[in-house]
Amino acid sequence: MGDCVDCSLCVQVCPTGIDIRDGLQYLCIGCGACVDACDTVVDKMNYDRGLIRYTSGRAITDGMTQGQVRKRVLRPRVLLYSAILGLIMIAFVVSLATRTTLRMDIIRDRGALGREVPGGMIENVYRLQIINTSESPLTLVLSASGVPELSVATTEESTTKVDVDAASNKMVPVVVRAPVGQVSSGLHDIEFKIVGQYQDGSQATVVERSSFIVPR
Questions:
Q1: Which of 192, 187, 184 has the alpha carbon at shortest distance from 160?
Q2: What pLDDT digit, counting tens, does each position of 152-206 carry?
Q3: Do 174 and 196 reside in the same domain of the chain?
Q4: Which one of 81, 83, 102, 112 has the largest count of C-beta atoms within 10 Å of its C-beta?
Q5: Coil, strand, or helix at residue 188?
């Protein structure tokens, strides 16, 4: 009746209490305790190992040996999938190594799109969400360009410098102004630029586009 001597050691050592001799079962956790127990018995009986083993359903159905199973693993489809997976892993590592640690999102203040303020200036208000994913704090210098004589400052301290802690983000209200008469009424494209320096001496620069509204 085959190499099994009905010692039932495979059942006794199974932590889930299944009988692996009945075939593959969903309760099996793949611990391999039955494999070790069976190999111990077949060694004493001078039988070949592998009566209970890690293999596939196809190998069991076709009666393949372990050598045949290993050869079947190296078929073109498996090699192609392995190559694709390897390329995905390489792309992931490259993207992780070259990722930027500084980001900026621009949110326009919808309550005041564009207005004329005392001093003959056109004012637009924005909120800049600055995200620092590095492990060191940053002091950033903020600037804006795209419109003649454009000036920018934070609303809290009237300065162009922003401090952002390590691995954190900060919402910074910003006022951008341009002299009346320097630009025509309408929508004008501008760019916000932040420049910061890390503790190792490297520099981070981020440029994001927005719009500057000049009312009629």
A1: 192
A2: 998 877 788 888 888 899 999 999 999 998 888 899 999 999 998 877 777 889 9
A3: yes
A4: 102
A5: strand
* CB contact at 8 A, 65 and 32: no
For the chain, give the mean pLDDT.
88
Range of the domain at 77: 66-99
60 in a domain, yes or no? Answer: no
187 located within any domain: yes
Which of 139-154 are b and which e, b meaning 16 or more Cβ less than 10 Å from the residue's Cβ?
Answer: ebebebebbeebebbb
**What is the C-alpha to C-alpha distance for residues 177 and 154, in angstroms, rounded to an integer?**
11
| Alpha-helical runs (H) found in the chain | 9-12, 33-44, 57-62, 66-73, 76-97
* Nearest CA-CA partner of 172 in 104, 114, 113, 111: 104
Domain count, the chain: 3
42 plus 89 within the same structural domain: no
Residue 123 to residue 177: CA distance in whole angstroms: 5
How far, in Å, CA of 92 to CA of 109, rounded?
37
149 with 109, same domain? yes
Q: Residue 1 pLDDT > 70, yes or no?
A: no
| Structure token digits, residue 212 | 């500057």
Asked if residue 118 and residue 204 are part of one domain, the reply reads yes
In this structure, is residue 59 part of a structural domain? Answer: no
Q: Work out the percent of the chain whose per-residue pLDDT is above 90.
A: 48
